[in-house]
Design a protein that fits this description.
54% strand; mainly beta; 215 residues; 15-stranded mixed β-sheet
Length: 215
């Protein structure tokens, strides 16, 4: 896909997210205080009818009259590998678009902001996941990769260039939910529902609690 085409398309997608409510809603709290809201949709299938899964999300900080808005798209293959990642960040400093794609053992990331463009290449592979400190529905991919024995993963945060190594271990759940524990550079607990959608996330080190909004 040509970068120019993506840049033309992505702001349109972000506006669509802002206008139409997405399927699931999350409340984001920091230190016991609500800081933002997130809406997301997780569905089977990718663009052009390809197999896999697609996640689209829109986060706002704060929820009302936000000064920071993030729109994300994550597509993964049936094996869980990265197929496409797009993140648009709209804040006081302007708009930044981050694009990422996997190519074998490589992860290629490109960042475009007003008047600048930069690219970098990082180690990739099936054990690498893309996350963001303010788009929490991306953790659904982590839960999907969890195993009862524990699976070692590397998280890449494209917006901040941070990398984190951790182990995700699937534990017993209830009511159709699946619970997983995270240990290492990222520690906490993660709960997804029967459809694989994020239901609750607790990250004690940062005082972050993300929970499904009550209808």
């Amino acid at each position: 896909m040509r970068l120019t085409a993506v840049l033309l398309l992505f702001p349109t997608v972000a506006r669509l997210f802002a206008q139409e409510p997405l399927e699931s809603k999350l409340v984001i709290e920091q230190g016991g205080k609500e800081t933002g809201r997130e809406e997301f949709t997780l569905r089977q299938g990718r663009g052009r009818g390809a197999l896999g899964s697609s996640l689209t999300a829109m986060a706002r900080y704060p929820a009302n009259n936000p000064t920071l808005k993030l729109a994300a798209t994550l597509e993964r293959t049936p094996e869980g590998a990265l197929a496409k990642f797009q993140l648009e960040v709209d804040g006081p400093g302007g708009t930044t678009v981050i694009l990422a794609a996997g190519s074998g053992a490589r992860l290629i990331i490109r960042t475009v902001a007003k008047g600048s463009e930069a690219g970098r290449e990082l180690p990739g592979g099936p054990d690498v996941v893309l996350l963001d400190d303010q788009v929490f529905s991306l953790y659904s991919a982590v839960a999907e990769l969890a195993t009862p024995a524990g699976r070692a993963l590397t998280a890449v945060f494209p917006r901040t260039n941070r990398r984190a190594s951790f182990v995700v271990r699937r534990e017993s759940g209830g009511g159709g939910n699946t619970r997983a524990s995270l240990t290492g550079d990222i520690s906490g607990t993660l709960v997804t529902d029967a459809q694989g959608r994020l239901f609750r996330l607790e990250l004690p080190e940062t005082g972050t609690v993300v929970s499904r909004a009550k209808e």
